[in-house]
Amino acid sequence: MSDSVKYLLDEQHLPRTWYNINADLPTPLDPVLHPGTQQPITADDLAVIFPRAVIEQEMSTEREIEIPEPVREVYRQWRPAPLYRARRLEKALKTPAKIYYKYEGVSPAGSHKPNTAIPQAFYNKQEGVKRITTETGAGQWGSSLALAGSMFGLEIVVYMVKVSFHHKPYRRAFMETFGAQCIASPSDTTASGRAILAEHPDSTGSLGIAISEAVELAAQRDDTKYALGSVLNHVLLHQTVTGLEAQKQLEMAGDYPDMIIGCTGGGSNFAGIAFPFLGEKLRGGRDIELIAVEPSACPTLTKGLFAYDYGDTAKLTPLVKMYTLGSSFVPPGFHAGGLRYHGMAPQISHLTKLGYIKPTSYNQLDCFAAGIQFAKAEGIVPAPEANHAVKAAIVEAEKCRESGEAKTILFNLCGHGNFDMQAYTDYLAGKLKDLTYAEDEVAMALSGLPSVA
Question: Which structural domains are found in the chain, ordered by start?
Fold first, then answer.
């Protein structure tokens, strides 16, 4: 049908492999370094906190990596996820552009995060792990790992960034419903948390701090591993089910994107939608424009440095080459908690440095306004994080209205905002403000970057 609104795939079209962009990079990633020796890290080094299968995927350069059947069985609870043509939004904007969005809010946790939580829980269970520790910002990753732990019979401990812990009580309740323990970070349960509280008793927390606490706890017991919800290669790999499905769905629509848009905090949902298409381009396929959208109050790609840095505040993690604002930087407490991270995924950072990805940023109020405009047209209330992608898609569609170009725009609506209604209430009441970061704090954080030969 020429006027179709949604494009649905049968379960038989669920991808059987993930796509690994490392196979098609024009130049390889800079090596990950051991934080103590600054030598390239080994699989044995990583085995303290990750299961072997995950480490192999992190280091792999194979283009396709098989999705285990037990993982596909769980995926089938909500995948393949729908692709929508935003016809009502197009009409409201009076744009000749065609706007498509892949809707990841249909997962049980309401976001894209289970795409990697399920396989990470599976691989840990397969290796005999009993407990997984992790961090979460807005709570979508913690919710997803709590769900995955329940599916595979694992104990889950989640350190939730304190500002989001208080902003989003329903996310905490969701995690606890599935049996996870949720702790506000920084906390007094770890040495790194106590150190932060001693210096900053009123700390609102950050993903870097929460990662430190989770890694510290994981390293203390042999039956415990750590899981990360974004940034690392294996996480971005698992998310490519999104883009692989979208490729088939756009074939159904007889279309192909001119540009792909996603919000970026650590980079997982952006990579999930964009990498399969970018892989085609790198192998000689059609040209596309990739736009990574971040909050102006935490502008990692647009204002950060491309340098080696730690992934956490306590400097427990390996050194990775990425765009960073400095591992000690604590972003302001804006509502898109999933985007409050000081660094960006090495793969996305590398491709941005090479010019394949265009970063941009928007402030909080403009993003909420865009989310409400989208909701009124399409009937879905986006998560605050996803509003950044919505805002960019609207901006690009309005450019098409002015130029008369009928571009095809694809963006990832990476989660719904049903647990974020207090943020919308505050916005509608005029209580939300555009928060800014202190430039001197970023300068201080960047001055502490490790010296790498």
Answer: 6-13+67-110+232-446 (3.40.50.1100)
